[in-house]
Design goal:
The complex is a heterodimer. Chain A is of the alpha/beta class. Helices cover 53% and strands 6% of the residues of chain A. In chain A, strands 1, 3, 4, 5 and 6 form a five-stranded mixed beta sheet that branches. Chain A has a five-stranded mixed beta sheet with strand order 9-8-10-12-11, sandwiched between helices. In chain A, β4 and β5 form a beta hairpin. In chain A, α4 crosses α5. Chain A is globular. By secondary structure, chain B is of the alpha+beta class. Helices cover 50% and strands 22% of the residues of chain B. Chain B has five helices and seven strands; from the N terminus they run αααααβββββββ. A four-stranded antiparallel beta sheet of chain B has the order 4-3-6-7, with no helix packed on it. In chain B, β3 and β4 form a beta hairpin. Chain B is elongated. Classes of the chains: A alpha/beta, B alpha+beta. Chains A and B meet through α1, α3, α5, α6 and α8 of A and α2, α3, α4, α5 and β1 of B.
């Protein structure tokens, strides 16, 4: 006799309606794909009080017996707790993928129309945006959750949703990169294209040249097709974004064996705040993400007989050359899987192999980082130090003041409720998995989702926690999606498992929770609420801070100033000047703007500034993010725009020459004042 | 079956060779873009899949894995090309991809012909059945066309609105470049219409030159004047731009006195 734990969650009490110590009815579903029983036909199951015995014939008259879990249906006082079963309904005859795809594309069109209305400063743009988002998300949600949808339909809809998210990210900024992080990487990509070689120093984002995977792929598409760097970059990132839900699906299916649960987990992964927008941008983390998932998937697949764990290495190498944090987290995840294997009592040979690959991967990561981007260590140490300082009782986040840029109360509440719902579903999912007959490995794996509340704690407790948490959730949601998917499967089970009013209530709860989480993904994500629809100019806003004047200053600097010049500027001007003109922006010069003229020569000399940029709108507008400058000494304290007198000093200071003026933005050459 | 595979592999290699040629002769975008996209996103992952699994990707999920694998292959190939003297040029990319295509095609063919055991299939549940039946084909084609039409409208709306927004942000640029005692003043009209300006240039506080300019949209005007360095001069050089019918300074650049 052999237990079938690894073959599938075979026998579950369907409802706690059996009397004590009696055998209850079981639905036995055997999954032979990973086992030695492949291609053998099962005989009818026989159930005894000791369990369910399955006889499998190999066609030669030889029978193999297997016990599929204990089938005793003891009604205990814990029977009301969730228990997961991968019982699935056979797909319905109607495939709704075509209808749903058309509705989703209509939603995307409405969102684009809302963008157009916003650009034209027409009314009704936000309403159109939300209607479009609803049409985009709801069909995919309904069909992915529905028990009778076919696995293929779910894959099509998840892919369609991801593709439309990429399309909308392009539609938000259709002519060039605007997000500051994109401009940082654009500089590295332009360096690759202009020098034909890698690893040119980038003073705007010093770690970027050491992780050039995305820029290499972009350069390849640019060189092979003749498309612009912008279009090539958009294509590369879109390809990487579109496959993410499919890979999450594959990963969770590898763990649970349930296609429906896996598809729901992939949908749930899409509720991570950065998924719909930030991870569709030209940033290296977005390109590394699918390879991280491929590496983890390969590690999980190595549990199958005959599959080598060495398959982890090719995608891991791509992660290593693409993104530092993803590399560190992949190594961490591989180590966690090794521990899960150990706790889950996996065969030692498999655990040993995985451990070997983990150590090898860590060695490769360290060697690459030290060889090509040693600055990464200090770069990543900054948020780590912030977190450690918070743990030691250091300064927490400053109390949020209600400003014109604070999100509406309903959006804040929605984001919080979505996080609460996710947390609740994680709890339910973990309990459901632990009470199921899932393998020990799956149960232990589900505990990794406890990282989710840790990330929420960072969001609440650490300075800049919102940004850290949003980025962290990109990775944590990979493990959190499993229990949430399981919980939603439990809430909305197949008709054979639960029926009647209880099922209807469960369906309503599942739909409400999924809607809330998806809505929360939009409200907690990017772009911020005030520029969710592109409209007017917002000072120091991310994309909304880049209008034609700011960009013209960047192009002028690229033509007329020396590369690597040291510059002081506000956040928006710095992003274009550092990217287009390869300037080095300082992050410690905000006091030059705030201070008196008498300190100007000394501070200009201390910062060795070559140029200083002034956007006159800082005397009329408050900064959207609470800071005018990177490293703003008065960040979060601005209650009124800058006094124009503070900027007038640059027009009279000896040795400071105004050499560029486009109305809003002026550039001053400052070297003569101190050299 | 092998004959069909041979044709498929030969076609792949032909495409790779064509890519080298199109880049060599700098073919028009209508040829280069689709061929380049196929070579960048299709061939490495597809042939890599064949080499590993002894078959082409046959459903959406496998196609997705092959697609993202292409990006990975490009990244690694770029590292290799970086070691060459030429580096990452269009020619080296096309030649590199061509060589890789031949290598992967040969490996795939060898594995199929010799029936080297491949890895088992990844997907068990999500296989999308091959499109069969006229009704199914019609549904897929109609859906695709409707979706493309909707997204086409979205592209037009997006491009038009962005163009209009950019055009609505009018601007005139005035800037100064210095070489020794020569100061060159530049004016560029980006107001989306023909503009008339008056320019006053002052050296050492005295008006040295005036000009009336008429510039079309996108046009640029420059003038170079000599501005000798006079120590302790409070305003060695200044240029003021006015709109034709205004007395308010529209743009200004200046050189301040040197620090003491």
């Amino acid at each position: 006799m052999q237990r079938l734990d690894n073959l599938g969650r075979s026998c579950e009490p369907s409802e706690p309606n059996a009397s004590n110590n009696s055998l209850i009815s079981c639905h036995v579903r055997l999954d032979f794909r990973n086992s030695d029983y492949k291609d053998l036909s099962p005989h009818p199951t026989t159930a005894t009080p000791d369990g369910v015995t399955v006889l499998v014939s190999d066609g030669t008259g030889r029978h193999r017996g297997a016990v599929a879990g204990a089938a005793r249906g003891r009604t205990s006082r814990w029977s009301w707790l969730p228990r997961w079963t991968d019982e699935e309904e056979s797909p319905g005859t109607t495939n709704w993928a075509a209808v749903a795809s058309v509705v989703m594309c209509t939603g995307a069109l409405l969102v684009c129309v809302s963008f157009g209305a916003g650009r034209g400063e027409l009314g009704g743009a936000p309403a159109l945006y939300w209607i479009g988002q609803a049409l985009l998300i709801v069909p995919a949600m309904l069909r992915v959750l529905a028990p009778r949808a076919s696995p293929a339909e779910r894959v099509v809809l998840l892919t369609c949703l991801a593709a439309l998210q990429s399309f909308l990210a392009w539609a938000y900024s259709p002519d060039h990169f605007r997000y500051p992080d994109e401009l940082q990487h654009l500089r590295t990509a332009q360096d690759v294209l202009s020098t034909d070689h890698l690893f040119t120093a980038n003073t705007y984002l010093s770690v970027s040249p050491g992780f050039p995977g995305m820029e290499i792929a972009t350069a390849a598409v640019h060189d092979l097709t003749g498309l612009s760097a912008f279009h090539a970059g958009v294509l590369v990132v879109s390809v990487c974004h579109i496959v993410v839900p499919i890979l999450v699906l594959g990963l969770v299916q590898e763990i649970t064996g349930s296609p429906r649960c896996a598809a729901i987990a992939a949908l749930v992964y899409g509720t991570a705040p950065h998924h719909a927008y930030y991870n569709t941008l030209f940033v290296y983390g977005a390109v590394a993400l699918p390879f991280l998932l491929l590496a983890l998937w390969a590690a999980l697949r190595s549990r199958r007989p005959g599959v080598s764990v060495l398959a982890v290495l090719p995608p891991f190498i791509v992660v290593t050359i693409t993104h530092h944090l993803s590399t560190a987290l992949t190594v961490l995840a591989l180590a966690a899987l090794t521990v899960v294997d150990m706790i889950g009592k996996a065969p030692w040979s498999r655990t040993r192999n995985l451990l070997g690959v983990t150590v090898g991967a860590a060695a490769v990561a360290v060697a690459w980082t030290l060889s090509f981007s040693a600055v990464t260590v200090s770069y990543l140490a900054i948020p780590v130090r912030t977190l450690l300082a918070t743990l030691r009782g250091g300064p927490g986040p400053s109390a949020a003041k209600v400003t014109a840029f604070s999100p509406p109360a309903w959006e804040s509440l929605t984001s919080m409720a979505a996080a609460g719902a996710t947390l609740l579903l994680i709890g339910l999912g973990v309990v459901a998995l632990w009470r199921s007959s899932a393998s020990r490995m799956v149960k232990v794996f589900s505990l990794l989702s406890m990282a989710y509340p840790l990330v929420l704690a960072v969001r609440v407790a650490a300075p800049g926690g919102a940004e850290l948490a949003s980025r962290g959730l990109t990775y944590v949601m990979v493990v959190a999606a499993l229990p949430v998917g399981v919980a939603l499967c439990w809430l909305w089970p197949s008709r054979r498992v639960r029926s009647g009013r209880r099922r209807a209530l469960g369906v309503i709860a599942a739909l409400a929770a999924a809607t809330l989480m998806l809505l929360g993904g939009v409200t907690a994500g990017l772009p911020p609420w005030f520029s969710r629809v592109p409209s007017g100019f917002f000072f120091a806003g991310t994309e909304s801070g880049l209008d034609r004047s700011v960009e013209a200053a960047g192009h002028w600097a690229a033509r007329e100033t020396q590369p690597e010049s040291r510059v002081a500027c506000d956040l928006s001007v710095c992003s274009v000047v550092a990217s287009y003109a390869r300037a080095t922006p300082t992050t410690t010069s905000s006091d030059i703007y705030y201070g008196p003229e008498t300190m100007l020569p000394r501070r200009l000399a201390q910062e060795s500034l070559d140029y200083l940029y002034v956007d006159r709108r800082m005397t009329e507008l408050l900064p959207a993010g609470g800071a005018y400058f990177a490293g703003d000494a008065k960040a979060g304290q601005h209650s009124s725009p800058l006094d124009p007198k503070l900027l007038a000093k640059f027009d009279t200071a000896p040795g400071v020459n105004r050499i560029y003026d486009n109305g809003f933005v002026q550039a001053y050459a400052t070297r003569r004042a101190w050299s | 079956m092998h004959r069909r595979l041979v044709w498929e592999l030969l076609t792949s290699m032909l495409l790779a060779v064509l890519l080298v040629l199109t880049i060599k002769i700098d073919a028009p975008a209508a040829i280069r873009v689709p061929l380049g996209l196929l070579a960048a996103f299709g061939l490495p992952g597809g042939l890599g899949f064949l080499a590993v699994r002894r078959r082409w990707p046959r459903d959406l999920s496998e196609a997705a894995v092959a697609l993202v694998a292409s990006v990975g292959v490009l990244a690694v190939l770029g590292l290799v090309l970086n070691l060459s003297t030429g580096g990452l040029t269009p020619t080296s990319w096309s030649v590199g991809l061509c060589a890789l295509t031949v290598l992967l095609a040969a490996t795939g063919a060898l594995r199929v012909v010799t029936k080297t055991p491949g890895l088992e299939s990844v997907w068990h549940h999500d296989r999308i059945p091959a499109i069969g039946g006229a009704r199914k084909v019609l549904t897929v084609v109609a859906t695709t066309l409707v979706c493309l039409a909707l997204l086409g409208v979205a592209v037009i709306v997006t491009s038009t609105s962005e163009r209009q927004r950019t055009a609505s942000q009018h601007m005139t640029e005035l800037w100064l470049t210095s070489v020794g005692e020569q100061q060159t003043v530049h004016v560029r009209n980006a107001e989306a219409q023909v503009m008339e300006y008056r320019l006053f240039i002052a050296v050492a506080g005295r008006q040295q030159r005036t000009a009336t300019l008429t510039l079309g949209d996108g046009q640029e005007w420059t003038a170079t004047v000599r501005a000798p360095v006079i120590r302790d001069e409070p305003s060695p050089f200044a240029a003021y731009l006015y709109l034709a019918d205004s007395t308010v300074v529209y743009r200004e650049v200046h050189v301040n006195r040197a620090p003491s």
